[in-house]
Design goal:
Elements: E1 9-12, E2 22-25, E3 42-46, E4 48-49, H1 55-65, H2 75-78, E5 85-89, E6 96-97, H3 103-114, E7 120-121, H4 131-134, E8 138-141
Length: about 150
C-alpha cells in the first residue's frame, strides 16, 4: 500500500477459525524516499485554484490568449524530457491561484495535470482538460530504483 490513505485497518486471517482473525493498522509509504534501496523522490506538486470559475473555460481562455490553438500545442514549450511517473492525490497541497498567477505557469500546470490520471502521469497520453483533471491536487513521484 502507498500513501497516507493506507491507514485503514486491514483484517487478516491467520489460517484458523474466525476467532483468530486479527485487525492491524497498516501504515507506510515508499513515496518521497530519496535514500535507501528504494528511491521514489517527489518530482512535482500540481494544484490550481480557479476560485469558482469553470476550470476548462479558464485554461482554454488562457491558451487562446497565449496564441495556442490546442492543449496539445503545449507539448512544444512544456512537454520535453518527461517520463511516466506515479501520482498521489494530496488535498492539502496549496494551489496556485489562477486569477493572479503568471498565465504561462498556469498553462504549464494545466498541461501537466492534463497528462495525469488520479494515479499516473503519462506523457504519451493525450492532454485531457476536464473539470476533474484540472482540479486535482497531485504529487508526482519518480519510481527510481524500485524493486518489489
Amino acid at each position: 500500500m502507498f500513501g497516507p490513505a493506507c491507514n485503514v485497518p486491514r483484517k487478516g486471517n491467520s489460517g484458523g477459525p474466525a476467532s483468530r482473525t486479527r485487525v492491524e493498522p497498516v501504515r507506510g509509504t515508499l513515496l518521497g524516499r530519496t535514500d535507501g534501496p528504494i528511491l521514489c523522490p517527489r518530482m512535482l506538486a500540481l494544484a490550481l485554484d480557479f476560485a469558482g470559475a469553470d476550470p476548462v473555460a479558464a485554461v482554454s481562455r488562457l491558451l487562446s490568449e497565449a496564441g495556442w490553438s490546442s492543449p496539445e500545442d503545449l507539448r512544444i514549450p512544456f512537454g520535453q524530457d518527461l517520463w511516466p511517473m506515479v501520482c498521489q492525490p494530496n488535498p492539502a497541497l496549496a494551489p496556485l491561484a489562477v486569477a493572479t498567477a503568471d498565465p504561462a505557469e498556469v498553462l504549464r500546470l494545466a498541461f501537466l495535470l492534463g497528462l495525469c490520471t488520479r494515479v499516473r502521469f503519462d506523457p504519451e497520453r493525450p492532454v485531457l482538460w476536464t473539470r476533474a483533471s484540472l482540479t486535482r491536487r497531485l504529487e508526482i513521484y519518480e519510481m527510481k530504483e524500485f524493486y518489489a
